[in-house]
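To illustrate this point, what follows is a protein record of this kind.

___
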Amino acid sequence: MQRIWILSELYFPEQTSTGYILTKIAEGLSEEYEVKVITGPATNFLNCEHHQNYEIKDGVEIFRCQSTLFNKDIFWGRLVNLVTQSISILGKSWKLCQHGDVILVVTNPPLLPFVALILKWLKNCQFILLIHDVYPEVLVAAGLCSSSSLLAKIGRRVSVLLYTQASKIITLGRDMTKIVKDKLSNNSSIENLSSKIYLIPNWAEHETVRPDDRDNNPLLQELGCSDRFVVLYAGNMGKTHGIKDLAEVATILQVDGNIHFVVVGFGAKKKWLEEYVKSQNLQNMSIIPLSARPRSEQSVSLNAGDVALISYVPGMAGVSVPSRMYNQMAAGKPIIAVADDWSELAEVVREENIGWVIKPGDIEGLVRTIQFAATNRELCVEMGIRAAEVARTKYSFAQTNQAYKKLFKEIFSISS
């Protein structure tokens, strides 16, 4: 039987985006292929859980590797985790992967694709690169290095090496596809870029997320803001997200008692936001830990907002595509996208007419947009209905699953 290995830092029982997404992809592929996963220690919301180092779940064999588990929001802790886990996964992969196997590897953490590259060179395994973040561009956008730094220059060279050596590349959006094509455009060894790159977007979880009546929303009742216009920020608050824009806008809109901000999530900037809210005594923002809302109950959180806010720092177009937007659409919420103009997020919002696009850093524009939405609730409802329909017809797991199966069918047919 044709065999697929998936290398991922995070996997079941992890419920944050990468772990959840890779778990669903593996289980979908297992309907037609023998699928095995090599991953790190079992975590849930990045907190350690007890699971066997080997188990079978929904037809997928899972091999867990041990590594350090320092705080991921601290740079050096994250770096040590990255190195130890990549070495551990390499050791396990070296023992288990065989000639002719096909590897699916995700770009997070950035050392993991080099494990697949080593296996290709030394064991003649093909690998497919699933891009969640584009390096080194994501490091530049996050302010971890400058575009002219030695790290960025090395990063650009090694990313081209990975893209060239991969049998196929999976991108999540049109902006990401453009960046990858630009990186490979000068490589004469690649005859047909279009056949090498597959655009397969993530999906909405229609089984658990759907539009619901906000008047009976438990979270709004718990917060005591059922009568207010709620701007919801749900998801990661990492270094590439525009959390300072969110905080500044909430500060300005304190004078409007009709508008309330609800933040559900985690990440490197969460502590900063909590301290800011406390220092400014912001009464119009509630911050809720993501771990307090299991993924199975996320429909409650996503239906607590009248409008969903997704905010990025500048320079993130093509570098990352937010998976959160699909579930927010499925919940029937219009989106305020604080994002670069040519990003996939901005393109979807505009072409489907399901919200507004604001440039990162345009505080006045964001304030005006939120105020406009708050005074035009019927328009928000209309946009939300369209968003839910778009999510249902264009972004289902069945469509994504079929695209992955088609890709692997092509890979195996070429190699046989």
About this structure: The first strand starts at residue 3 and ends at 8.
